[in-house]
Design brief:
Helix 2 runs antiparallel to helix 3 and helix 2 packs antiparallel against helix 4. Helix content is 14%, strand content 33%. It has 456 residues and is of the alpha+beta class. The chain folds into 5 domains: 127 residues, no CATH class; 102 residues, no CATH class; 85 residues; 70 residues; 42 residues, no CATH class.
């Protein structure tokens, strides 16, 4: 979730009011708003803001954020008059939002990017600004030089060995020279040192790959994750394995515009991993084979629906000698938990603008008395869901989310093995009771009746 300023908690009382938007351009002496907010000479120059959609491809490791486009009127022709001495293209741009009655310092930043184009529209009375996010920084190829210092090709290979998330960080920082402030290293390192601790990939490259394609297909997809650009312009990361299963927001009928159609997610009940990548007889990796294969079927789903949906993940970096089979088992299990039972999916559900702070991967609780609950066989739902796609409809003051079933998060957690000499469950403190595993009875319960913690 976008971290809101302290006063943002008051916005629930504004859910029926139109939002305020503030566009700021690097080193430009004028900011643009859609209303008069009495801040730094800001006047309502904003004519329109086009919808801004973020589409998540969680099974393919990536995301796509549309261009941010806004139109401003040219009052007194001051914008065109500034162009001979001020270049808009390439300047950093930010979009902030709030409500009238909230101080500008308590607005939240929604978008950070750079201006690509400035076009004259509406007979020269207005200017259209087209802005891109930092994903354009991923366009170059990487690993241009082989191990021997020559350009990378079949005779001058590039060997890359290391933790997959360290490899990802090195691509961003060392090869693409992206400022570390534009990378959510806190989250990246938490996963590297947490659930993915100890894993290692090994690549032998004969062609410099495109950075974006390599990151998505060879690093994020095998880890059950996807990379996207957040509101601060940072490269951010979400994984099927939850950073936290705690709900960050409860979405009630008070912030809901309509009753959505409740759909089913595409079915995936078998995951096939291929790894241990080898060269063919001519020394080319582009047509190489995979010597190892791990097929993980979801028996409950197959018994119910048949073997109808397969996800294939081919990883040139995973190795059976580097815990490849273990990683394949973990990620396969996460995928079939999310997609193996025709899980609930709600697409483009509209909410009031107060809910614009949610981000991909956020866990939310949806409470609605009109949505059918198929599992309970009743009307009315209170369910844990995960945010995927997002669309900001600025001019309507509406945010749309695609939400998928997140109940699997309660079934898949990592707990620590208790250390030597540690007290039993009832004698341990609450922190260890939540984080560690203890001996259970035959019903998988602790002596207090609490459900026992599993290894995975």
């Amino acid at each position: 979730m976008i971290t809101p300023p302290s006063l943002w908690s008051t916005v629930n009382s504004f859910h029926n009011k139109a939002p305020v938007f503030l566009v700021e351009i690097e080193t430009y002496g004028r900011s643009f708003t859609n209303v008069e907010i009495g801040f730094g000479g800001s006047v309502p120059w904003l004519v329109s803001l086009e919808d801004l959609a973020l589409t998540i491809s969680d099974l393919d490791g990536g995301a796509d954020l549309a261009e941010f486009t806004f139109v401003v009127q040219d009052r007194g022709r001051v914008i065109v008059a500034s162009m001979p001495t001020f270049t808009f293209e390439g300047k950093a741009v930010t979009l902030k939002t709030g409500f009238q009655g909230i101080a500008v310092t308590d607005y939240v930043t929604l978008f950070t990017g750079r201006i690509d184009q400035v076009n004259s529209v509406n007979g020269g009375l207005e200017w259209q600004f087209v802005c891109s996010d930092n994903s354009i920084l991923l366009e170059p190829a990487v690993y241009l030089t082989g191990d021997d210092g020559r350009p990378t090709d079949g005779d001058h290979r590039k060997t890359v060995i290391g933790h997959p998330l360290d490899i990802l960080e090195a691509i961003l920082v060392d090869h693409l020279e992206i400022d570390i402030g534009l990378i959510n290293l806190t989250r990246l390192h938490a996963y590297r040192d947490g659930i993915f601790d100890g894993f290692e990939f090994s690549f032998s490259l004969d062609t410099p790959p495109n950075a974006k394609d390599f990151i998505e297909a060879e690093l994020m997809k095998p880890l059950g994750g996807y990379m996207w650009v957040n509101n601060l312009g940072q490269f951010d990361f979400s994984f099927f394995y939850p950073e936290s299963d705690a709900s960050v927001r409860t979405l009630t009928e008070a912030v809901t515009f309509e009753i959505p159609d409740v759909l089913q997610s595409d079915l995936v009940n078998s995951v096939r991993f291929r790894f241990d990548h080898v060269e063919d007889t001519e020394g080319n990796t582009s047509s190489a084979d995979f010597l190892a294969e791990s097929i993980n079927n979801f028996a409950l789903s197959i018994d119910r629906y048949g073997l109808t949906g397969e996800q294939i993940i081919e990883s040139k970096g995973m190795r059976s000698g580097l815990a490849g089979f273990l990683l394949a088992k973990i990620i396969s299990r996460l995928i079939v938990f999310r997609y193996g039972l025709k899980n609930l999916r709600i697409e483009t559900m509209p909410f009031t603008w107060t809910e614009c702070i949610l981000e991909p991967g956020d866990v939310v609780t949806l409470e609605n008395s009109s949505i059918p609950d198929r599992e309970a066989g009743a009307i009315g739902i209170s369910k844990k869901l995960v945010v995927l796609d997002r669309n900001w409809r600025f001019m309507d003051g509406v945010v749309e989310y695609t939400l998928i079933d997140g109940s699997y998060l309660d079934k898949f957690k990592a707990y620590l093995i208790t250390t030597d000499g540690q007290a039993d469950y009832t004698a341990s403190d609450s922190a260890h009771q939540l984080s560690d595993m203890f001996l259970c009875n035959d019903s998988n319960q602790y002596s207090t009746g609490a459900p026992g913690h599993t290894l995975a």
